């Protein structure tokens, strides 16, 4: 694999693996990296391969202690949409290497838990994958989350564990669920697509809160309809 002028060029196998572990969506905003073009009747690839640690010593998140081969390895590359790529490189202090590395690994693990890239041929298959994500988040909330009545975690130590769980497991799982819905738009109802957007807004606010970032207005609540994604009437 070579990298010219800071632009990563991966081998075919490495590139396929990168798309598989990303679920075909932007790591940060979950936008599909293959939006459809009705006029041309085909999808348009918009994925940009971004370095976590910069290719050069003066680029975003540069680290001269990392070798050039390691900087250009697939483990140092994430798939982003054009907007997010611009954002992370224009504001590297808001998107440090450690954050992007953890997000990449969390997405990879979340995808592996549902058996690979979430593109399905039926609502039943999609429901099975969605159920696994929802069940995992529910168990995490019940075992590590705050008291459902008081909202208290009981101690600072438990609060720190919960925040870590939110950022490293629940947020990536929720983003994967949003990606699953959007990648399978042809199987989803209009209401389910709306639910995906509400879940995205909830997840963004949840992440910002636990990263200590200011919220612009009230935090959106988890949309209860997400629990019924891809279910059939009467389930």
UniProtKB/TrEMBL annotation:
CDD domains with a match to the protein in the record: HNHc
Gene3D superfamilies: 1.10.30.50
Ranges of Basic and acidic residues composition bias in the record: 201-213, 224-235
Stretches assigned to the HNH nuclease domain: 46-87
Region (Disordered): 53-73, 201-235
Name listed for the protein in its UniProt record: HNH nuclease domain-containing protein
């Amino acid at each position: 694999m070579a990298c010219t002028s800071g632009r990563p060029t991966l081998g075919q196998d490495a590139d396929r693996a990168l798309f598989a572990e990303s679920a075909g969506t932007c790591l940060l905003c979950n936008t599909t990296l293959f939006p459809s073009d009705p006029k041309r009747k085909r999808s348009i690839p918009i994925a940009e391969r971004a370095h976590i640690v910069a290719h050069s010593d003066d680029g975003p998140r540069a680290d001269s202690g990392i070798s050039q081969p390691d900087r250009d390895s697939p483990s140092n590359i994430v798939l982003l949409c054009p907007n997010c790529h611009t954002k992370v490189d224009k504001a590297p202090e808001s998107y440090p290497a450690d954050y992007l590395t953890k997000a990449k690994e969390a997405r990879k693990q979340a995808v592996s838990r549902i058996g690979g890239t979430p593109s399905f041929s039926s609502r039943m298959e999609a429901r099975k994958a969605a159920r696994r994500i929802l069940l995992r988040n529910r168990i995490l909330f019940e075992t590590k989350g705050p008291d459902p009545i008081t909202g208290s975690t009981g101690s600072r130590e438990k609060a720190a564990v919960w925040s870590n769980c939110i950022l490293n497991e629940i947020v990536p799982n929720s983003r994967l669920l949003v990606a699953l819905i959007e990648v399978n738009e042809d199987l989803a109802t209009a209401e389910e697509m709306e639910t995906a957007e509400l879940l995205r807004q909830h997840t963004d606010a949840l992440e910002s809160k636990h990263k200590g970032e200011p919220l612009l207005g009230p935090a959106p609540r988890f949309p209860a309809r997400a629990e019924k994604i891809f279910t059939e009437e009467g389930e």
